[in-house]
Amino acid sequence: MTRRYKALAFLLALLLTGMNSCTSSTNGTNDTLSKRPPIQVTPANLAQLRWIEGAWRGTGGGVPPFYERYKFENESTLTVETFADETLTKVNDVSRFELRDGKFGHSDGKSGSVATVLDINSITFDPVGKGNSFRWQRESENSWKAILTWTENGVAKERVYNMERWPAATR
Fold first, then answer.
1. Are 95 and 107 a contacting pair, CB within 8 Å?
2. 91-141: per-residue pLDDT in tens?
3. Which of 36, 51, 105, 125 gives 20 to 30 Å between its CA and that of 96?
4. What is the DSSP string of 106-137?
5. How, if at all, do strands 103-107 and 77-83 pair?
6. CA 9 to CA 76: how far, in whole Å?
7. Other CB atoms closer than 10 Å to residue 138's CB: what's the count?
8. Model-level pTM?
């Protein structure tokens, strides 16, 4: 497995399924963040996230650049594709965030995340069970941040990925 693919797989695992090895608080959960209850979400609420649609280049967090595409399949399902490289021709992974029974989130069967905060510029997901929390925070029309937070040995940790529209917008 190439270094780039390992980095992409690692990032996707962090964002979508939680970072179980970095949630070692007293009871093995993300104590600080897991207390927020899931919010009730409607398709109209999800429309606030349309800014995230498109292809993005991610940097930061000590990993090589990675490439993802976010697309609403319908009013209640957001698909996230992770690509092998900047050509966006080979999909390495596909994940789905779905609205079910008023809750919006992702699950891979072992772990997952659910929306706990949503506004016009961001959405926050907290873990279902063990894992990390993460927020997608819009900075501008062509950039946003993925901010991961977790507790390790009782200490709050954070990692930030900068997401820029790809290919870069020309003016």
1. no
2. 999 999 999 999 999 998 788 999 999 999 999 999 998 889 999 999 999
3. 36
4. EE-SS-EEEEEEEETTEEEEEEESSS-EEEEE
5. unpaired
6. 25
7. 18
8. 0.80
